[in-house]
Amino acid sequence: xxxxxxxxxxxxxxxxGVFQGIILSYFFIKKSTLNIKANKYQGxxxxxxxxxxxxxxxxxxxxxxxxxPITNYSEPLNFxxxxxxxxxxxxxxxxxxxxxxxxxxVIFFLYLGYMSFDFMQSxxxxxxxxxxxxxxxxxxxxAPMIFSNDPLKIKNYVNAxxxxxxxxxxxxxxxxxxxxxxxxxxxxxxxxxxxxxSSRNMIFHIITVVMMFILVKLSFKGDTGDYLVxxxxxxxxxxxxxxxxxxxxxxxxxxxxxxxxxSKYSKSSLTEVDKMRILDNITLEFVSKHYFSxxxxxxxDLAKRIGExxxxxxxxxxxxxxxxxxxxxxxxxxEEAKRILADKNKNNLTVEEVSETVGYxxxxxxxxxxxxxxxxxxxEYRKLVNII
Length: 388
Description:
Helices cover 63% and strands 0% of the residues. The chain contains 16 helices and no strands. It has helices spanning 9-30, 39-61, 78-94, 106-114, 116-119, 123-134, 158-184, 194-219, 226-245, 272-288, 299-306, 310-321, 325-342, 351-357, 363-374, 378-387. The mean pLDDT is 86.
């Protein structure tokens, strides 16, 4: 058994990416507040990537031979990446709060169970697996199988299945963003809203990762080229670390770790006086003119009403309120809905009528937003305030 190990710049860089990725995933999950519950899925996506990188580090340096019992421990996580990306984008863009998100992870759990055939193999057999994937020129050990580690003969198709699943979920996530972008009257390449722009950027970077993954698998034997994908992901993890260190409000607003726009408004011409003036005008539209009740409300339309550019309005909402336009819109609509639901003189209004009154075109969208901001459905809230 060859127990040679080595450390170089690349492996150190990937190790730092693993370390920072695990730390960042903890804060994303911990900071999945009432307003940004979707962050838990982003945190889990980052954690999956960090764990995949960790095994890549062990294989790249040869330290996997020191811990052979855990060989291939991260392989099932390949089937979490696509679902986590989609669920995060869907929750963040649509604020849906679906309770059946677990269904997207059925393949992961099935494959995790299937991997038990691999986990129960001898250490010598696991060493041969490592050699076949990363050092095909090394001699193998005499390690006969007591039972097959792949009884269904599907392991040769795992990479193809991973790529296919990722492509499907990327398309689903992109579809959700496109639907929301269409509502703003903009194009996918010209977006003013921070959440939609960051969602788009995140999807584009994931597409790059998938393309790299496919090219690596076509160009390198076994898993010998995986370090290229690992390096790319590590770069973005370290960029996110840099952003966190330079922005104390990073986890309190719309933060996407696979978004390279480090300082979106760094070249803004707005002074503090300009920002407060724009904020006052935004507040006037929402509070005095009830702009939120317009079912066609959009960032571009609001900007036209107050005579500002969409970019500047988005900047002020992001910086001064720590919200996106859609979050601001939802907060005013829900507050107005709470007032209506608590008014005993309006008990004759159905929930659907209330949702239309505050500007929602869909009862489901209203219920989701209300539940997200109050932790209760509109009907539950009405019953509670009537009892009180």
